[in-house]
Amino acid sequence: MSALSMDSLLETINRCLGEDDDVTLGPDAADADFDDLGLDSLAVLETLNQVERQVGVKVPEELLADVRTPAALLTLVNERAAEPEQAASAG
Fold this sequence. Notes:
Blueprint: H1 6-17, H2 34-37, H3 41-55, H4 70-90
């Protein structure tokens, strides 16, 4: 499984915000709260669903409770993506 980059995550968030929005998130949005970026809980869930398809990893929705920024989501997804590799290399 491949790691997700911040650029890729922000592109996904921009798609979830919709093409009608005048705002395009850049790298400075990494540490901004999802609410401040205009993402409600449904948009965050849609972002997660798209990211899961891109990376090929499943992130349980209950883990999103403490994830409030793109940087935190990126860390969570990449940690989950690395878990099978770590298990395989430990064996």
